[in-house]
């Protein structure tokens, strides 16, 4: 069996970060922004890395050297970032990562890439909390674009809901907390403390 070509990497950093009270993509862990740390994980695993930002958003990630994909539509949410990247590069598959996953690790990404099924629309992990798909650390195949566009046109914008409907390959998590995200100042303080104990 031949392996599919490596995906492009997409760092989603265009969220409004309302609960955090400031741009999550600019928050630092051990001196680096979370997108900088995520980019280091993606570099050896992807052909090219792109930074997804909303329209008019300034790049405060510390990754000024990355290609930027700005949202093509005003609608908020990660689906717009994913679709914007897929529209600009329709031939590519995408390893998509949110910018608020400070516990993400090599093991999690390597397992995702090794287990990837290119015949499925996506390969993703099951949430360790509720068993549902984790859409923001997942591989979306190039042929998923038309399906995602159809959901978007029908005003279904939640990537998790879309994955539930489309039967992706779902993997069990391999690393505790790897997909835990940070949404509030309290989450951030807890993450900093937990990371300092590693």
Number of domains: 1
The CATH topology name reads Spore Coat Polysaccharide Biosynthesis Protein SpsA, Chain A
| CATH architectural label | Alpha-Beta Complex
Discrete helix count: 6
As residue ranges, the low-confidence spans are none
The portion of residues forming beta strands comes to 15-25%
Question: Which structural class should the secondary elements be placed in?
Answer: alpha/beta
Let me know the CATH homologous superfamily. Answer: Spore Coat Polysaccharide Biosynthesis Protein SpsA, Chain A
Can you describe what's shown?
It is a single chain. By secondary structure, the protein is an alpha/beta fold. The chain has one domain (8-196): Spore Coat Polysaccharide Biosynthesis Protein SpsA, Chain A (Alpha-Beta Complex), CATH 3.90.550.10. 30% of the residues lie in helices and 20% in strands. It is built from 6 helices and 9 strands, in the order βββαββαβαββααβα. The chain has helices at residues 34-42, 78-88, 106-115, 144-153, 159-166, 185-196, and strands at 8-12, 28-29, 32-33, 49-53, 67-70, 94-98, 122-126, 133-140, 169-171. It has a 7-stranded mixed β-sheet, with helices on both faces. A two-stranded antiparallel sheet has the order 2-3. Strand 7 and strand 8 form a beta hairpin. Helix 2 packs across helix 4. The longest helix has 12 residues, at 185-196. The N and C termini lie far apart (38 Å). The model has no long low-confidence stretch (mean pLDDT 89).
């Amino acid at each position: 069996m031949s392996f599919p070509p490596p995906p492009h990497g997409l760092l989603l950093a265009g969220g409004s970060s309302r609960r955090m009270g400031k741009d999550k993509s600019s928050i630092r862990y051990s001196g680096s922004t979370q997108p900088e740390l995520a980019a280091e994980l993606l570099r050896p695993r992807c052909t090219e890395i792109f930074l997804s930002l909303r329209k008019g958003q300034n790049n405060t990630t510390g990754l000024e050297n990355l290609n930027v994909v700005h949202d093509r539509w005003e609608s908020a949410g990660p689906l717009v970032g994913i679709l914007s990247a897929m529209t600009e590069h329709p031939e590519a598959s995408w390893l998509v990562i949110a910018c608020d996953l400070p516990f993400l690790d090599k093991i999690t990404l390597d397992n995702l890439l090794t287990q990837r099924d290119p015949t499925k629309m996506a390969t993703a992990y099951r949430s360790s909390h509720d068993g549902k798909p984790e859409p923001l650390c997942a591989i979306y195949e190039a042929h998923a674009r038309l399906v995602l566009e159809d959901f978007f046109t029908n005003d279904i914008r939640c990537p998790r809901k879309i994955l539930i409907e489309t039967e992706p390959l779902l993997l069990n998590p391999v690393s505790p907390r790897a997909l835990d995200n940070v949404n509030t100042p309290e989450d951030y303080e807890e993450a900093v403390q937990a990371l300092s104990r590693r």
